[in-house]
Protein 1
Amino acid sequence: NAGVTQTPKFQVLKTGQSMTLQCAQDMNHEYMSWYRQDPGMGLRLIHYSVGAGITDQGEVPNGYNVSRSTTEDFPLRLLSAAPSQTSVYFCASSHPPNLEQYFGPGTRLTVT
Amino acid sequence: SQQGEEDPQALSIQEGENATMNCSYKTSINNLQWYRQNSGRGLVHLILIRSNEREKHSGRLRVTLDTSKKSSSLLITASRAADTASYFCATDSGAGSYQLTFGKGTKLSVIP
């Protein structure tokens, strides 16, 4: 099992550009989520999904879109990147939703 | 908003000593979890304690939960240099919640 994988590991964007952060898991977990981690702020939930075709907003959803067409994949789209979105992004999965979360290695995003 | 808040923000101890970290939260919960994050890596689940449990052990880890005070503590006994990491508590928001909220973390340094 690869667990939770994220690509890319590092990304630099210019303000206004769009991109998609990829997340995949091979554990057949129904629940997947995206967090961002900023210095001194801990992890903040962006969006989550309780199954294919079902997504919902977390604490900081503005500027991000998600979709869940398969159980395995949960991509995060930045529509028009802003410097405030410079952060480390983590994807996680679990089953059931509120129990042990399996985290990916993270994507470090810089927006200039 | 932060549900869980860890205390202290940073802790430095000698190898072999015990390390205690605390977490306070605001609303009723189903369970509370502790995670470890090594520098530059994703979070790793350590232990989960349910709201009807008062104490739980896993190897050198001991977690307590006091729901009347809305607080939890994580004790690492006989610490090792490899325990150097940041430690986070995570809570749900009670029945029907699919969202986990993480605190800002305690940065533990174990000096060999």
Note: DSSP finds no helices and eleven strands in chain A.
Protein 2
Amino acid sequence: DQQVKQNSPSLSVQEGRISILNCDYTNSMFDYFLWYKKYPAEGPTFLISISSIKDKNEDGRFTVFLNKSAKHLSLHIVPSQPGDSAVYFCAAKNTGTASKLTFGTGTRLQVTL
Amino acid sequence: NAGVMQNPRHLVRRRGQEARLRCSPMKGHSHVYWYRQLPEEGLKFMVYLQKENIIDESGMPKERFSAEFPKEGPSILRIQQVVRGDSAAYFCASSPLQETQYFGPGTRLLVL
């Protein structure tokens, strides 16, 4: 049962444009969400997070939006840079009962020149 | 401040051998998590430990797998009698409390 879904396995965006990565979840008990970026042969690197009490969190070029009613979150990267090319994982947790993260299957972002 | 350290980075074992994966959390972090990533899949939670205690092992296979986080030294994920299906990348993460988890570079296990 895939509780966190990233339905787009890959995305190609031109340098300087906006990248939008999407994530859907089914478990209504999730109340904290994170995005990680992963390069080949490396571990995931934390990018940005958002609590369910907020609907937007911004950090530099990265903004995460949360729509609780739709159980949907998205990561916006503006402007996209070639160094952003990586696999992006969405993750969720229920802070009240568990510490474990539930991950999506990832979206491979390719930023082209 | 060094990040999460994992060793070895690559490990090759024959079927039936034992694999030991080590994880040293970031300084000041007392919470350790192990995840496994199979090819073309996301990371799957295995176990959550604090010093000398297993807090949540709901993602750990019931047989052959064990984990520990002793008072001194790194956390160890141990896989006994490895099989080909154990081939995967194993990632360790640490956090200071139950907050953002920071990941190590992973150990890539290949079972021949």
Note: Chain A is about 0% helix and 55% strand.
